[in-house]
Amino acid sequence: MPTPTGSGGAAGPTAADDVEALAGRAAASSRAFAQTAPRDRARALVAVGDALAAAADELIDLAMAETGLARPRLTGELKRTVVQLKLFAETIVDGAYLDARIDPADPEFALGARPDLRRTLVPLGPVLNYAGSNFPFAFSVAGGDTAAALAAGCPVIVKGHPGHPQLSIRTAAIVAEALAVAGMPDGVFQLALGQEAGVALLKDDRIRAGSFTGSLRAGRFLADVAAARPRPIPFFGELGSVNPVFVFPSAAAGAGAAATIGAGFAASISGSAGQLCTKPGFLFVPAESAAELTRAVASGVAGVPEQRMLNPQIASGFVARQHTVLGADGVSTVVDGGTRLDGDEQGWVTPTVASTTVAALSAAGSAVLDEAFGPLSVVVAYDDVSELAALAAELFPGNLTSTVFLGEGDESALVHEFVSVLSETSGRVLFGGWPTGVAVTPAMQHGGPYPATTSDSGTSVGSAAITRFLRAVTYQDAPQPLLPPQLRDDNPWNVPQTISPPGASATWGALV
């Protein structure tokens, strides 16, 4: 794998000639990689995870220096990255993800003679993955998108994030070496650096899909580039989410409820300096409990020490966003979080909490409703619980998460309607918990309607993430030697096959 470096060994942008070479190598390796057996790719993913774990001390030191994130947070994140890789190994090892379906020829088919039809999922081809800044392991070079695409059998080019270039280079070297030792084809994993390289690769016809984690502005720009190509490609972007939390009167009324909810909310908005895509940006509370709940939130953030933000650009953006929110009509400052710049122009912050009403929030519009990437959240007082469903649909049409706090046994028709609305506007609906801390597990959905993501049916966390990088192909009356292994009668990969035997159509509907 070519290492993109500038003079003196410092990370520099990938040159135009190298961009061409990267795309060429990815394309050249695509067919051979797609034809590797699932079990072999699974072993390679485990090898990558083991190699990253073995280099943990070195990688965590680099990540701390470049991102300012604390060692405990990065230690947990690197472990998550290793677990992700092994989850995808587990997902593909038996070949069930290939969804092999076989309909043998059937002269007695209910609608007339049926040919031999065999359908399976195949890799899309080379994937360009834009690394995120706030998870330098789990959403970066060896993160979930990379793991999912490699598991699917797609070569990956990672466009490294400028916020942690040295970590990106070292991680990429470890991944590339582990894949090579595991016998994967040359060119299945490569790294590029620099904005121009990232755009040039996205426009290259040899790239067949893009994945992205970052800002709404950058993500939308790239999504438009992908859509405007002579041959458009799928672009799976995670863009922006404010993750509202709604407290019903039944939840606020219990003894100690305000303290518990306030402390949980404070912890969720302040973790990792609020630089999490699932950070709750709004807490809706009943007007009659607003004062108590707001005091509880303020108390929860009071002892949070200042934390460094990921890089100067994010820090300056947060300061500007903080100024806009706190300056909006009808918004009151509850806790005026501090911000300071050190000698390296890095920003250090403590949490900011504001309060407002539903009417003022609606009037303020995007000035307050847009995502604040950092430790800033707004407590919103509402008058009538019956207005929450319409409010959620109107103000929050697309989010990664929405959360509802209910009292025990509160399952009225109004609650059912509200939960239905949240399921239409959110990728994950939580009850009585906090959205930060995304479990890496098969049932996780980390996606949502726009602007949370550009493809609301996909997820970037959990085993279902692999489906983004696969497409279906049906073979009709194909000779056995020309079929992919998973569709042959001898089934050399020993994968699950769903077979619709001749004559079955005569009984369709009998079980209804």
UniProtKB/TrEMBL annotation:
Domain Aldehyde dehydrogenase: 15-394
GO MF annotations, alphabetized: oxidoreductase activity, acting on the aldehyde or oxo group of donors, NAD or NADP as acceptor
Gene3D superfamilies, per database record: Aldehyde Dehydrogenase, Chain A, domain 1, Aldehyde Dehydrogenase, Chain A, domain 2
Pfam families recorded: Aldedh (PF00171)
Domain of life assignment: Bacteria
Alphabetized UniProt keyword annotations: Oxidoreductase
Matching InterPro entries: Ald_DH/histidinol_DH (IPR016161), Ald_DH_C (IPR016163), Ald_DH_N (IPR016162), Aldehyde_DH_dom (IPR015590), Aldehyde_DH_Superfamily (IPR050740)
Name of the protein described by the UniProt record: Aldehyde dehydrogenase (NADP(+))
Lineage, top ranks: Bacteria, Bacillati, Actinomycetota, Actinomycetes, Micrococcales
